[in-house]
Amino acid sequence: MKTIITCLFFVVTCLSLSFQKFGKSGVAYYNTIAATDTLLWYTELCDHTGTFDKSKYTKKQLQDTYKLWYSNRSLLLSTRDLETDPEKYNSFDSKGQLKLLKKEYAAKKKELKNLALVKGNIWEELRQNRLKNLDEWYELSTINLEAHSNPQILLNNRFSKYCPEYAEVLVSNDTLKLMECWGRLMSKQENRNFSEASFNKYTNTLSPESRLAHARSYILAYGWHNCAIRQINHEIPNVNYQGEFEKLFISVETECDEP
Fold this sequence. Notes:
Elements: H1 2-34, E1 36-42, E2 46-53, H2 59-69, H3 94-113, H4 121-149, H5 164-171, H6 175-190, H7 196-203, H8 208-228, H9 241-246, E3 251-256
Antiparallel strand pairs: 1-2, 2-3
Helix pairs in contact: 3-4, 5-8, 6-8
Signal peptide: 1-23
Keywords: Signal
């Protein structure tokens, strides 16, 4: 017991001497240390360690802001909405994929809305931009999946007027127009590697059913879809988000690999 009391007396004495030595500046120093924390984040070739003021932001706010700005891939839709393998086109479960898409969209939208961002118009405007982009991708993916079993939907949506050639041919029962459209599209996609003779030779090796599956899957994915995505809002405000993010920290240390 005597030993314990002696040790406690020693600790108290040391603290008292420290306070007398450093005074208020010492208290301020210790308070400053206690009021800061660090965050590690990554960009393409660099690791960053930032020291931040905990009285201004929480680590959660900084992590969520970084996620919105840079590591937002997990917030994008990943449900497959097209079958590009013609051999699997007729067996593609578009209705099952549509259910998965709806579920994923609801979850991603909720996650985006619930991000605990650092306060500021820059970050809230970026969130709204990401939400708009998510909505538009969901809209197009839904059309893609529904068009697999009901091509008529391609004629009555906001993308239709921009991509009439592909919408009309996929709805039509005219197989000749379908084959011609497929050939033209192949010519655009393949450039020098394409010739009408080689295309005809290739299509003649396919059964009628397989030929239709090849044409429809190709036109839907590389004709309709590629045309429609050009109408989706991809514009991101002209803001240096990395610079704005680093401004949130007292100091930032960066280590980069050679490119």
